[in-house]
UniProtKB/TrEMBL annotation:
PROSITE patterns: GATASE_TYPE_2. Mg(2+) binds at T303, D365, D366. Its EC number is 2.4.2.14. This is Amidophosphoribosyltransferase. It comes from Wenzhouxiangella sediminis.
Amino acid sequence: MCGIVGIVGRSPVAARLYDAMTILQHRGQDAAGITTLDDGRMRSAKGLGLVRDVFSEEAVTGLTGEVGIGHVRYPTAGCDQPDEAQPMYVNSPCGIALGHNGNLINSERLSRELFVEDRRHINTESDSEVLLNVLAHELAGRTRDGLHPEDIFAAVDGVYQRCRGGYAAVALIAGVGLVAFRDPNGIRPAVVGRREAPEGPEYIVASESVVLDILGFELISDIAPGECVFITLDGELHRKVSDHAASYTPCMFEYVYFARPDSMIDDLSVYKARLRMGEALAEKILQEWPDHDIDVVIPVPDTSRTACLPLAHQLGVKYREGLIKNRYIGRTFIMPGQEARVRSVRRKLNAISLEFRNKNVLLVDDSIVRGTTSKQIIQMAREAGAKKVYLASASPPVRYPNVYGIDMPAASELVASGRSEEEICRVIGADRLIYQDLEALEKAVRGKNQRLTGFDSSCFSGEYVTGLDEGYLEELESRRSDAARMQRRRSG
Ligand SMILES: O=P(O)(O)OC[C@H]1O[C@H](OP(=O)(O)OP(=O)(O)O)[C@H](O)[C@@H]1O
Ligand SMILES: NC(=O)CC[C@H](N)C(=O)O
Ligand SMILES: [Mg+2]
């Protein structure tokens, strides 16, 4: 997953973009970048690593301008090359910089088309470079007397017709303004907000509403599926939903794991959704296992905490923080490479023995993906003296790859792929394993929201809202599995 932000301000924006990116850091830890626009000139700085490592104070000060965009990256295409860091830039038909969250499922074909038909050269393996070039090509036919809102909307319509997949993007167009758009199914999230500055209104676009809270902007709304938001350099806001809008199916994994709990996505509080996930899971446990012998409920920090508290409450069992997290180690799931992920779990989590010794413990996690975390913490719980170790997951078994912006491309790496729940339980070494049902999860997340068509729950159900070309998943696995990546690295 990646994080995007864009601001059309009335005073320099670089420091605010920097702050926004630190707020979105949980969405991508591999690379970060900012591009600003100052008097027709784009200024850019980007690099590999966390936001605080990429930007010195001088670097931020050098990014002058009252309009700009920022990006934090967690790759789903290409790898961790510096030239794949975003925002990316093209200079034809005018200066355009773009930051993208998501993943295109037809980028190979588009890349060939761009080369052969549109005479554009793609220089990296990044699908975001493809998206940027499609946008640039669509704008190119429409720049006769400058770019007006209708031209921008028509160009983004062209993007919707050509680009399949999940995408929320923010682009800066020199001399024109800031453009943001969201894929026709609304898979990836994006919101727009406003703030009254003494000099006039300022606008912001971001992946998550928490950025607006902290930077003092009012949330106007989510960007709708298939909607384009265009803010001119004078601070005029234009919006249009395309006829190509298809469904309203945000990514379920945002609510389960990715987003911060203090964000609102598509009118749903992530925090409340997680509380309801915990309640629903408790109901299932009580139904299937009324005579359970759980002595204590312990969350696997951080993300599962919100769901774990109401779960323990509903079971009538003590909630204890028995696993302590080292706050200086980032999210392990989004680290590149299985080796790094395995090492990090142990360095990141440690058990407080007295909460485990001679007890039947229920560990609660938000999700079990590769099983990296669960295998290790179950072992840790046993070493700390637990009598029985049970595990509950607030989401169903992850059996299918994600193709819309979360880097789980290979079914063979998912611990639940092709396995029954009993087999998974054995593999991770638990005494009992309880998963949330998909129907209960969707009900818990949706709450009373009637606007959504449903969710993209493909990693749980294997049903992909955009449909997939025959052989796509096999090709993705052969290109992006951990083994394939290691092999590529070894052969230079
Ligand atoms: O089965 P796995 O492949 O291990 O993936 C699932 C785990 O990874 C995530 O935690 P992570 O450490 O990334 O972040 P968190 O601190 O936000 O929970 C998630 O919350 C699960 O704990
Ligand atoms: N996780 C994401 O949103 C990744 C964006 C883009 N596909 C990249 O690899 O840079
Ligand atoms: Mg976790």
